[in-house]
Amino acid sequence: MSLTTQFRALHCSEDLLVLPNPWDLGSAMIFKGMGYQALATTSLGLTFSLGRKEGSVSIDDMRQQAVDIQNKSGLPVTVDLENGGADEPEGVANAVRRCVEAGLAGASI
Asked: What is the Cα–Cα distance from 30 to 62, expressed in whole angstroms?
């Protein structure tokens, strides 16, 4: 079963779906070890873990971090894209499309 299918199934379950927010691979692996079945990245957590100011991390960097976490943890990951990297709907749609193409289970803006 694909990670996207697993993620969708978790949303359809009668059980409560809790998505912890890892800020790096280490925290993702801790959450996995605690038994979480999916993860949701945090753009602010990533930014602060890099010692940078809010809004200074690119959509590509956010997507890549989420892909790395998903690939290494084996869990479905939805990526936090802040404002989608754009002010226009088309730009946001493009950012989400690139996340889908990268194989991520989901994206939030």
From this structure: 20
